[in-house]
Write a structure and sequence with these properties.
The chain contains 13 helices and 13 strands. It is an alpha/beta fold. The termini are close together. This is CDP-glucose 4,6-dehydratase.
C-alpha cells in the first residue's frame, strides 16, 4: 500500500474551495500535517463550523462564492497555487428538494467556474474535482459501481453532481488536454463520516446532537445500505490522485474512493455501532416514514479497484473502526476536548496504521 508522499506536499501551495465545509476543514488540516500551505475560498454560512475551531498552520482564506467568477479567478490566480481541490458544493440531498435551482447552480456551474478560473492560473499542475458516489444511475445492484458505469440522478443533488461530472469531462477535453496544461480529474467518495460534521440531515451529526441533548436518534431509512468511510480515507486518496496528476502519471479523469465492498452497512447497523461506541445509555429508533418522503436509494456502493490498482490507495480504517472513532470524537468534544486536538489525534493515528 503506497502512502501519501510528504516530500511532494511540503511547501506546496494548495487552493481549496469549500474549505469551511466538513471535508474542506479536514483537508486543510491534513495538508497542514503534510507541510503544505492551503488557501481557502468559500462561504461562511453556518453558525457552527469545524473550520472555526481549528488552528491551521500555513493557511489563509478568502470569503467568496464559487458562482462569482471574477472573485474566484482573482483569488485563484493570486494564490499561485500548484494544486486545486474543488469541494465547494450544496451537499445535502434533502436540501436539494428545497432549492433545486441553487443546487444545480452551485454544483454544476460552480464547477464550471472553478475550471474556467483555473484556465487563468499559470502555476497549476493538477485539479481534483470532488463529486459523489451518488453520480451513478442507481439500479440497486448488489455490486459496486465502477467509473465507466452510467451516470444519473433521481434527485436534484445526485443529478447535479452527475452533471458536474459531465461538465468537468467537457472542460478537461476542451481546455486541459495540452502538454503544458494541468491535469484534472473527478473523485467520487462514499458516505464520509468523522468528527466535526454539524450539517443537518446526516445520520451521525444528527446522532451526536440528539445524544448530547439526552435524546434518542431518530434514523431515517434504517434498511438503506451505504459505503461508510472515515473522512481521512478519501482525503488521502485525493492527495494521492493529485500527486499522480501533477506527475503526469495518469490521464484518467474519474476515480472512486470508497470502502471495501464487504464494509457496506445499513443505516441500522451504523446506528447500532454508534450508540454502542458512545455508551452511557445512548439509543436510537427508526423515524416514522412520512407519506411524502423523498426518494432515497436502497442500496448504493462503489468499486474502488482502479484507485487500488493504479494509485496504490487502500482504505486504512474499516467502516466499523470509522464509526467508533467518529462516536469517540463527538463524545470527547461534548466532554470539552478541543476540536483541533481531536482532529490531530485522528490524523496521527491514521498514519500509524
Amino acid at each position: 500500500m503506497r502512502l501519501i508522499d510528504r516530500g511532494f506536499w511540503k511547501g506546496k501551495r494548495v487552493f481549496v474551495t469549500g474549505h469551511m465545509g466538513f471535508k474542506g476543514a479536514w483537508l486543510c488540516s491534513l495538508l497542514a500535517h503534510m507541510g503544505a500551505e492551503s488557501i481557502g475560498f468559500g462561504r461562511d454560512e453556518r453558525e457552527r463550523l469545524l473550520y472555526r475551531e481549528l488552528n491551521l498552520a500555513g493557511h489563509s482564506h478568502h470569503l467568496g462564492d464559487v458562482n462569482d467568477l471574477p472573485a474566484l479567478t482573482a483569488a485563484l490566480s493570486g494564490s499561485r497555487a500548484d494544486i486545486v481541490f474543488h469541494l465547494a458544493a450544496q451537499p445535502i440531498v434533502l436540501a436539494s428538494y428545497v432549492d433545486p435551482v441553487g443546487t444545480f447552480e452551485t454544483n454544476v456551474m460552480g464547477t464550471v467556474r472553478v475550471l474556467e478560473a483555473a484556465r487563468q492560473a499559470l502555476d497549476l499542475k493538477a485539479i481534483v474535482v470532488v463529486t459523489s458516489d451518488k453520480v451513478y444511475r442507481n439500479n440497486e445492484w448488489a455490486w459496486g459501481y465502477r467509473e465507466h458505469d452510467a451516470l444519473g440522478g433521481a434527485d436534484p443533488y445526485s443529478a447535479s453532481k452527475a452533471a458536474a461530472e459531465i461538465a468537468t469531462e467537457a472542460m478537461v477535453s476542451s481546455f486541459f488536454a495540452g502538454d503544458s496544461a494541468p491535469r484534472a480529474a473527478t473523485a467520487r467518495a462514499g458516505n464520509v463520516i468523522g468528527g466535526g460534521d454539524w450539517a443537518e440531515y446526516r445520520l451521525l451529526p444528527d446522532a451526536a446532537r440528539a445524544i448530547s441533548a439526552g435524546q434518542p436518534l431518530f434514523a431515517r431509512h434504517p434498511r438503506s445500505m451505504r459505503p461508510w468511510q472515515h473522512v481521512l480515507d478519501p482525503l488521502a486518496g485525493y492527495l494521492m490522485l493529485a500527486e499522480s496528476l501533477a506527475g503526469r502519471r495518469t490521464a484518467r479523469t474519474s476515480w472512486n474512493f470508497g470502502p471495501a465492498q464487504e464494509d457496506a452497512m445499513t443505516v441500522q447497523e451504523v446506528a447500532d455501532l454508534f450508540v454502542a461506541a458512545w455508551g452511557g445509555g445512548a439509543a436510537w429508533t427508526a423515524a416514522p416514514e412520512s407519506a411524502d418522503a423523498k426518494h432515497e436509494a436502497g442500496k448504493l456502493t462503489i468499486d474502488s479497484s482502479l484507485a487500488r490498482r493504479e494509485l496504490g490507495w487502500h482504505p486504512r480504517w474499516r467502516s466499523d473502526e470509522a464509526i467508533r472513532r467518529t462516536a469517540a470524537w463527538y463524545r470527547d468534544h461534548a466532554a470539552g476536548m478541543h476540536a483541533s486536538v481531536l482532529v490531530e489525534r485522528d490524523i496521527s493515528d491514521f498514519f500509524k496504521v
